[in-house]
Specification:
Oligomer: heterodimer
Order of helices and strands of chain A: HHHEEEHHHHH
Number of helices of chain B: 9
Distance between the termini of chain B: 50 Å
Strand content of chain A: 5-15%
Strand order of the largest sheet of chain A: 1-2-3
Strand content of chain B: under 5%
Largest sheet of chain B: none
Number of helices of chain A: 8
Distance between the termini of chain A: 46 Å
Structural class of chain B: mainly alpha
Radius of gyration of chain A: 30 Å
Chain lengths: 223, 185
């Protein structure tokens, strides 16, 4: 028991400067967000709001019949042939029966299915799934940097913060990113780089809280 | 009862926070963040989520200061909030392996053999604590590890002093049983 007590008592949990600053800025941001949040609605609006929400959910689940509802369900026919079509770059035109077309640009006619001997032609239009690679925004990069810091992965955090500064020069996150980079440089022993980054924040930064923190860091670096 | 200078300072800072001064709250944070972080470490081990929990503690502290009547010290209030945050965390999360996170608690100046021993001691201690109920774990750490008096433990866990004593005693019995079981294996 004594050994267990002593072992637990020896766990100090050292909170270094970087983690302390990072945690403080997260706290300050959340407090700012909380104080800027709209006031809660009056409770008596809850009931009609809940009713409206329930109605919306029901409408989504039980969809009203669309414009094609009047069409009779086609009788089952033997499929005579399926002819794959070469991929078209233009969406297939709408035929007289109003076959649904893809609303997504790039929807292509992939197959023409002949049902019955020339009776009817069903066109199969399939949405193409486009894989769109979106560039992560400044906020996403900054959040990834915070996650890397929480894992003590300073090099990954640095790389992500540098991307914020380079790729989003007009973002409000540039000041905090530069300041974080200064802290990381200071932790790694590169005070010259830390000073340069702090001076940049003080020269061009617009965020008052970050400027104040940068002033304090500059004083500490000067000692 | 004579108050320490820091307690008087804390009361002044709280008054300024209540008046809306953010800088005073930042001073409270800088003064007490390490203390709270140490408590969280002893309650849940060197868990990766400690930084998030530290933030939670101070985010909860801010509105709590507006309701604070000064019936305990600011540190007691912080410990109370930290204990609740830790208990919520323990209840939400399944136990996770802390092997890589334990490294930060190992002094690199130790020999490899000493480091191995230290690692095993920490794993054993945290393994025993993880088997306790969260409320017992908190009571055990506050009283047995940090040596706080029973009435202080009672204020932190928001219980009657007699209930706090019983909780500490129950935790102590559970720990003794678990340690004995480990020694037999």
């Amino acid at each position: 028991m004594t050994e267990l007590r002593d072992t637990v008592a020896s766990l100090d949990g050292r909170l270094d400067d970087v983690r302390r600053e990072h945690a403080w800025r997260a706290v300050a941001r959340k407090l700012d967000a909380a104080s800027n949040a709209p006031p809660p609605r009056w409770p008596w609006l809850f009931v009609p709001t809940a009713a409206a929400l329930a109605t919306a959910v029901l409408l989504l689940v039980v969809r009203p019949p669309g414009p094609m509802a009047h069409r009779e369900e086609p009788a089952r026919r033997d499929i005579v042939a399926v002819t794959p079509q070469p991929r078209a770059t233009e969406p297939a035109p709408v035929d007289a029966d109003g076959v649904v077309r893809s609303a997504v640009a790039g929807g292509a006619l992939l197959a023409r299915i002949v049902v019955g001997a020339g009776e009817r032609v069903e066109q199969l239009v399939v949405h193409e799934t486009l894989s769109v690679h979106r560039r992560p925004g400044a906020a996403a990069l900054y959040a990834q940097a915070e996650a890397a810091l929480a894992r003590h992965d300073a090099s990954r955090a640095c790389a992500l913060l540098e991307r914020v500064v380079k790729e989003y020069p007009g973002s409000a996150l540039v000041d905090p990113a530069r300041y974080d980079l200064a802290l990381l440089a200071h932790s790694a022993g590169d005070d010259a780089k830390a000073v340069a980054l702090v001076e940049e924040v003080l020269a061009t930064g617009t965020n008052a809280n970050v400027r104040a923190a940068a002033e304090r860091l500059r004083e500490r670096l000067a000692r | 009862m004579l108050e320490r200078v820091s307690e008087v300072d804390d009361r002044e800072l709280v008054a300024r926070v209540v008046q809306g001064e953010r800088a005073a709250f930042e001073t409270i944070y800088r003064r007490h963040a390490q203390t709270v972080f140490t408590l969280l470490t002893r309650l849940i081990g060197p868990d990766r989520d400690r930084e998030d929990l530290l933030q939670d503690v101070f985010i909860r502290l801010h509105p709590a200061l507006h309701r604070f009547r000064g019936d305990c010290s600011l540190v007691t209030l912080l410990y109370r909030i930290a204990a609740r945050v830790a208990i919520d965390h323990m209840r939400r999360r399944r136990p996770v392996e802390l092997l890589d996170q334990i490294e930060e608690e190992i002094d690199p100046g130790l020999t490899p053999a000493q480091q191995t021993t230290r690692r095993e001691e920490i794993m054993t201690a945290l393994g025993v604590l993880a088997r306790l109920k969260p409320t017992h774990r908190v009571a055990f750490v506050l009283r047995e590890v940090m040596g706080l008096p029973h009435d202080e433990v009672a204020r932190i866990i928001d219980a009657h002093p007699a209930a706090a004593r019983m909780r500490v005693a129950a935790a102590r019995r559970a720990v003794a049983k678990l340690v004995a079981a480990k020694e037999r294996t």
